[in-house]
Structures are given as structure tokens and as C-alpha cells.
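Holo prediction — zinc ion.
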Amino acid sequence: MSGRLADLSGPCISEAVGADSIILLPVGAIEQHGPHLPMSVDAVIADEVASALLDKVGNEVDLWLLPTLSVSKSNEHAWSPGTMWLSSDTMLRVLDDISACVATTSARRLVFLNAHGGNSSLLSVACRDIRVKHDLLTFLVHPSLPPASGGMSTEEELGMGIHGGLNETSVFAHLRPGEVNMDLAVRRVPEWMAENASVRFGGPVQFGWTSRDFGPDGHIGDPTGANPDLGRELFESAVAQLTEQLREIARFEFRS
Ligand SMILES: [Zn+2]
């Protein structure tokens, strides 16, 4: 079987999906990523990472993919025409509805694989709400942890390559080599913020922002050195880490 839930017939679900199955929802975004990248970056990354996990560890952990949720909470890019986004209220409701559907199967584990940093806080809230309301075991994993959630970006980007920067552009160049326009890649690192000890990406003070707050281009980071080899390395290491995380998720149970 394919490991994609939507490929099963209705009657097959009860045979194929059991109490030990993991249901995984890839969560991407359709949002501006600066002039050098298409809007589909996060959706493509979520999709490709999920497919790679299915190939690598699908049978071992009884993994079932849901279709990628491509439109999510991207209102930090709402200023850019064509960015598609759900409000936080709508997104929580969508996640709640999807979880209610998952809860009709025998599966007890639901994993959000999130490729868009703007979703992270909301998905943490959803994990708890769904745990309470639908009695599922819920988990949030990332191909790369956003700096605001403790992840790192490169030193050259002063730890603030958070959107369309070196790493993300490289990963996309590996996955879709024909779709990056390096002629339009320019450095857009908010150097002024690096002077702050607290109010900065990765600092202890959270702040509300839109990508337009940092200039007209819309990306935040330095994609100029991006290349597919680095992208392949990052992609493969993300898949390897997520493989271990899924193995642990597969055996995770609360003990009281
Ligand atoms: Zn992105």
C-alpha cells in the first residue's frame, strides 16, 4: 500500500490503519518568499520531506500521510498580493476538523510536520487542544526548527536567516533546481537588530512583525550563497533527524 491515506478505499481504512499507526499532516504555506523564490516553497518542502519519510520509515512506523495542508497562517506576508493565508481562528478550526476526522480511524497518533515557522506557535496550541478534545496523542515536528522556537540560522546571517535565506533557498534549489532565480537573490539581513540582546529573532523577547517591516523585498536572510549541494545536505539531515523522531513518537506513551 502507498502509505497515503487518501489512496485507500473507505472500507480498507479499518484494516490498514490501526492503533499503532501514525497519521502525519504535512503543513506548508503559499506565501511570498522574496523575488528569487516562488510562493510554493514551504508547501513543496513539507511535501517532499513527508514523501522521503514515507519511503524511509513508512513501513517500520506504520506511517500514513494526509494530503499536504498548503494554505496556513501566513498573515505576516498578507501585504504581498497573492499570498494565501488563513487567520489563526480559521486555522485552529481547520486543524480541529481534520483531527476529528482522524479520530474516526483507529489511529491514536497525529503528527504535524510543519515547514512554515509562522505556524509553530499555533500548532503548539492545536496539539494541546486536540489532545484534550479528541484524545489523540499529538506531536509537532519541523524539518528545520524556526529561530523563534530555538532553531539556528547561519552566523553570516547573524542568526536571522529566517525566511528565504541561505538554508531555505538551498533546500529549495535542491528540490526544484529550475525554480530559483539566483539573479534576483540579494542579502536582506536586519543588521540593526543584531545589536539587540533581547528584541531580535531568537532573543528572549517575542515581538509581532510582518515581513514588510524589514523592507520591500519580503525575504529575511542572505540567499546569495545558496546552492543545491548545501540544500541536499540539509534535506538529508532533516530527514534523518525526523526519522529518529518518528521512531520515538511510534513508541511514545504517557506513564502515570
Ligand atoms: Zn518558507
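READOUT: The radius of gyration is 18 Å.
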